Amino acid sequence: MSGSIFDEGAVLVPELVTPAEERRLLQRIAGAPWMTDIGRRVQHYGFKYDYRGSASPVPAAPFPRWAEVMADRLAPWFEATVPEQCIVNEYVPGQGIGMHADHAQFGPVVASLSLACDWPMRFRPRSVRPYARDGLPGDEVVVLPRRSVLVLAGDARHHWMHGIDRAAGRGRAVRVSATFRTLAR
Q1: CA distances, 24 to each of 13, 112, 115, 132 (Å)
Q2: Residues ≥6 apart with Cβ < 8 Å to 137
Q3: pTM of the shown model
Q4: Which residues contact 174 (CB under 8 A, 6 or more apart)?
Q5: 3-state DSSP call for residue 44?
Q6: Could you give the CA distance from residue 125 to residue 39 in angstroms, rounded to a whole number?
Q7: For residue 91, which of 174, 180, 147 has the smallest C-alpha distance?
Q8: For residue range 74-131, what is the model confidence (pLDDT) as tens digits?
C-alpha cells in the first residue's frame, strides 16, 4: 500500500449536490425520525447497519424519495448498481466516530455524502493499528467539503479504516452524512 487513501481507490467528488439541493436534503432529513441509541442521531434505510457486524442484513425503512434520487446519482461509482442501504449520521461539535472499516456484509463500494459543514476525516491502513478511538500520528487527514461525496472502493474500502476525532468537530457547525452501500453478493 502506498501513502495515501487516494492511491488506494478513494475518490473525493466535490459539489455532488448544489446549495439548493443541500438545503432540500437537510430539510427532508431533519423531518424524518431519528434513532439515538448509539450516542448520535442516525437514520437507517433499506437495511439496518448492525454496529456489531451481524452476517445477516435486517431490513429497515424503505428509501425516502431523496435517498432514491441520490442512490441513482451515485450508481456510476457502484458499477451501475444502485445502492440499497443508506445510513444518515448527524455529528454535532464534539462528536465523532471511532476508526473502523465498514462491515463485510456490505459490497465493495461505500459512498458518503457530506452535508451542512466541512469536517475532517482520518484514514489509516488497517495493518497499522486495528483500533484507536481517536487519531494517531501518521493518520492521513482529509477535509470532506460539504456537498461532496467520498467514494471508497478497492483497497481504500477493504484495507483502510476511517473515523472522525471527537475533537475535530469542535468549533464547527453540525455535519450530516448520508452513506450509501450495496449488500455483499
Answers
A1: 20, 17, 11, 36
A2: none
A3: 0.92
A4: 90, 91, 92, 93, 116, 117
A5: strand
A6: 26
A7: 174
A8: 999 998 789 999 999 999 988 888 888 888 888 999 999 999 999 899 998 888 765 5
Record the cell numbers describing residue 44, joined without a space: 437507517
SS3 114: strand
Q: Report in angstroms the alpha-carbon separations of 104 from 52, 94, 109, 155, 158.
A: 11, 29, 11, 13, 8
Residue with cell 484495507: 159
DSSP-derived letter for residue 73 is H
Residues 6+ positions from 64 with CB-CB distance below 8 Å: 28, 32, 45
Q: Quote the CA–CA distance of 72 and 113 in Å, as a whole number.
A: 13
- Give residue 78's identity as a one-letter amino acid code: F
9 close to 156: Cβ distance less than 8 angstroms: yes
C-alpha angle 2/123/12, rounded to 5°? 85
For 10-58, what is each residue's pLDDT tens digit? Answer: 999 999 999 999 999 999 999 999 999 888 899 999 998 776 666 678 8
Which letter, b or e, does each residue of 132-158 get, where b requires 16 or more Cβ atoms within 10 Å of its Cβ? Answer: eeebeeebbebebbbbbbbbbbebbbe
| β 85-91/42-45 pair status | antiparallel
CB atoms within 10 A of CB 40: 15
Q: What length is written for the chain?
A: 185
